[in-house]
Every structure is written in structure tokens, then in C-alpha cells.
Design goal:
The chain has 365 residues and is α+β, with helices and mostly antiparallel strands. Helix content is 35%, strand content 21%.
Length: 365
């Protein structure tokens, strides 16, 4: 049994919870090693304090789950069957006294909650699993960090492909297609999120959508990307110059790089998440671009690309060794340019190490 699953069982004992219902696919992957996107179908992990857990999957995934690293029972349902009835039957076979459930309140939909509650009308569903899972995932194991280092190497490869694809007149979406095609040729089949390639003033939208906009000479091009490698993610952003962008665009780049490097250098156990955000934000604010840095400094990552914690103003969370998160300040000036520079890292005893190593100095293509 995975260490994380044992810790969940102990938590259930400590909190006098009879069963945990885990339904977010990324959380199920974290506890079981079985990765799946069930789409609209029901995928669940049921965990008990004393008895063995079981996986519940659509019928078409049962064999895949059994052939994964999961070593316990797998049950499933056909599309014409009521999955909640089967889940209730299997739970009642394990224990006849189910009065207190723990659920992921941040991911369990109201519709699915009501379907589950219908079969256990006298049970309580007040215990929230989410904070426990967040805390459990916060400190990465050496194996998790090693996997994320590999995911970071593939992000570096993706940047290389993207930079080489830049030419006058190519569309943003064509560069995205080339990056993902070359990764798939290497066996990397899943991105952490939809790859972002934005040129010039298009990059002034922090999470803009690449489209038919053609890349022109003398503008900045922003790349935000990451891959999933053995169940763990990478996430990084680079902004490069194609030709000779304006003086203002170069100034914005230099400010963002200064803010990024200052926050990165300050990462160490004992500093708070809010203090890290303030270091970067003060540099950008003092340069006159405060209103154009309109998001948090960073976020946790691991088996999901956006995890706890949030590095934002006022967050008192103390940084600890083994945490993994992003440092990604940005400046986005409508009609001018958008610049973001991002590395994800793991915290060491005395500082941090980044997962991606594509140069961050001002680079001209």
C-alpha cells in the first residue's frame, strides 16, 4: 500500500470517519497510481480506516485498473446500470456501520453528492477531505521530486521546439501544434494544460488563447507550457524576442526578470508565501507597473499542475523543505506586450532548485 494511502487511513481513524469517498481523478491517481480521465462517467476511490480500499470505475476501465499498480479490488458498472447503487452495495459489504463520510468538498458536484446521499440517508457528510489532501501533497517525497525533474526536462525540450518554430507569418496555433507533435513523437502524450503561445499585444492577456494571430518581426513571444510525466507535471513560462521589440517591451522584460530572480533567490525554509509574493510585487510596483501584475506570484504543483499552496499577498504559510511551487511574476500592458517568466522548483534545506533550465536572460530569436 502506498505511503499516502496509509496516511489517509490513519487520518480516518484519528477523525472517526467510517469511509472516504475520493472522486477527483488526479487525487485518485495520487493515492492509487491509476491515471484516468473518466469523462462524464463515475470514477471513485473508497477508503476505510481498517479494511482494504477499493476502486470503482466504468466497466470499460476495469481491466486497465487491475493491470495498473493498484493491488486491491476493482469494481465497475455498465452505462445502463446505476453506479451509486453498486457503490452502496460494495460499501455495505465492507462495513455495516457507515455513519460518517469524508468527501472532497472542492470537487464533488452537488448532483453526485445527492446521488450518494440518497443511498445513505442517515449518514453525515460534513468531513472535508480537501485540507488533509492538500497538506499530504504539500511535501513531496524524493521519488516525486525525481519524477518532476524529468517532467521539467521535457518542458525544456518543448521550449527548444517552440523557439525553433518561430518565423515571420507563422500562426500561434501552428507553433503550439509543432510543440505537441514533437513531444508526442518522443512519447510524451499529455500536456499539463493547454499549451500557450502568444505574440506581441496578444500576450497582454495572462491566459490568452493561441489562435490564427500571426507572429511578426520585432515583438515578444510568450510560451507557457508543461507536460505530464509518469503522473507528475511540469509548468514553465519563457518570453523571447523575435527581432527587435520596442524599448518599452524590453524594459518590461527586464523588470519581470529582476522580480523573478529576486523572489527565486529568497526561497528557503522559514520565509512565508506572502513574503515571497511581496518581494516580486514590490519590484514591479516600484517600477510603475503594479496594476499590470494582476495575479498571484505562484502556485503549488505535483500530480496536479495547480495545487496548494497559493503564493499570494498576505498568505502566512511558512515555506518548508520539500514543497514544490512556481515563481511566475508578470507584467501585462494592453496594446503593448505581456511578459511572464516562470520556473517551478522544490525547496531544499538552504534554498531551492528549479525543474526547468531554459535560459531566462533576454533572448533574441
Amino acid at each position: 500500500m502506498k505511503k499516502q494511502l496509509k496516511e489517509l487511513q490513519q487520518w480516518l481513524k484519528d477523525h472517526q470517519v467510517d469511509v472516504a469517498f475520493v472522486n477527483a481523478p488526479e487525487t485518485i491517481g495520487y493515492f492509487t497510481g491509476y491515471e484516468s480521465d473518466p469523462h462524464e462517467r463515475i470514477l471513485a476511490l473508497l477508503v476505510f480506516p481498517e479494511s482494504n480500499p477499493f476502486l470503482f470505475t466504468p466497466a470499460l476501465e476495469i481491466d486497465d485498473a487491475k493491470n495498473s499498480e493498484w493491488n486491491y479490488d476493482v469494481f465497475g458498472y455498465l452505462d445502463n446500470e446505476d453506479p451509486w447503487k453498486i457503490i452502496a452495495e460494495k460499501v455495505n459489504e465492507v462495513t455495516s456501520a457507515v455513519t460518517n463520510w469524508a468527501v472532497e468538498k472542492d470537487s464533488l458536484t452537488l448532483n453526485r453528492f445527492e446521488a450518494l446521499q440518497n443511498y445513505f440517508p442517515t449518514s453525515q457528510f460534513k468531513t472535508d477531505l480537501t485540507p488533509m489532501i492538500q497538506r499530504l501533497k504539500l511535501i513531496k517525497t524524493p521519488d516525486e521530486i525525481a519524477t518532476m525533474i524529468e517532467a521539467g526536462k521535457w518542458a525544456d525540450f518543448a521550449f527548444e521546439v517552440g523557439f525553433n518554430a518561430i518565423k515571420e507569418g507563422i500562426m500561434e496555433q501552428e507553433v503550439v501544434a509543432e510543440i505537441e507533435y514533437q513531444l508526442k513523437k518522443k512519447g510524451i502524450m499529455q500536456m499539463s494544460f493547454d499549451t500557450i503561445v502568444l505574440a506581441g499585444d496578444n500576450a497582454a492577456s495572462p491566459h490568452g488563447n493561441p489562435g490564427e494571430r500571426k507572429i511578426k518581426k520585432d515583438e515578444l513571444v510568450l510560451f507557457d507550457l508543461g507536460v505530464v510525466y509518469n503522473g507528475y507535471t511540469s509548468d514553465a513560462t519563457r518570453t523571447v524576442a523575435f527581432g527587435e521589440p520596442s524599448k518599452e517591451a524590453k524594459e518590461i522584460y527586464d523588470i519581470v526578470l529582476t522580480a523573478h530572480n529576486a523572489a527565486l533567490a529568497a526561497v528557503k525554509p522559514g520565509i512565508t508565501a506572502g513574503e515571497l509574493d511581496k518581494i516580486a510585487r514590490d519590484i514591479i510596483t516600484d517600477a510603475g507597473f503594479g496594476p499590470y501584475f494582476n495575479h498571484r506570484l505562484g502556485h503549488g504543483l505535483g500530480s496536479s499542475v495547480h495545487e496548494y499552496p497559493s503564493l499570494m499577498e498576505g498568505n502566512p504559510l511558512v515555506i518548508e523543505e520539500g514543497m514544490c511551487f512556481s515563481i511566475e511574476p508578470g507584467i501585462y500592458v494592453p496594446g503593448v506586450a505581456g511578459v511572464r517568466i516562470e520556473d517551478c522548483l522544490y525547496v531544499t534545506k538552504e534554498g531551492c532548485e528549479v525543474f526547468t533550465h531554459t535560459p531566462k536572460t533576454y533572448t533574441t530569436i
